[in-house]
Amino acid sequence: MGQRVSRDDFMWTYSEQPHCSRREQIVKAHPEIKELFGIDPSFKYVVSCAVLMQILACYLLRDADWTLVLLQAYFFGGVVNHSMTLAIHDISHNTVFGNSRPLANRLFGMWANLPIGVPISIAFKKYHVEHHRYLGEDALDTDVPTALEAKFFTSPIRKFFWLLFQPFFYAFRPLILYKKAPTDLEILNFAIQFAFDGLIVYFCGFKSLAYLIIGSLLAMGVHPSAGHFISEHYVFAEGQETYSYYGFWNLVTYNVGYHVEHHDFPYIPGRNLPKVRQIAPEFYKDLLIHRSWSYVLYQFVVNPKIGPYSRIKRKARVPQQFYGNNMLGDYLEAFLTHIGYFQVRQALSSIRGAIGEYCSGVVRGKIE
Question: Which residues cross the membrane (predicted)?
Answer without folding.
Answer: 160-178, 190-214
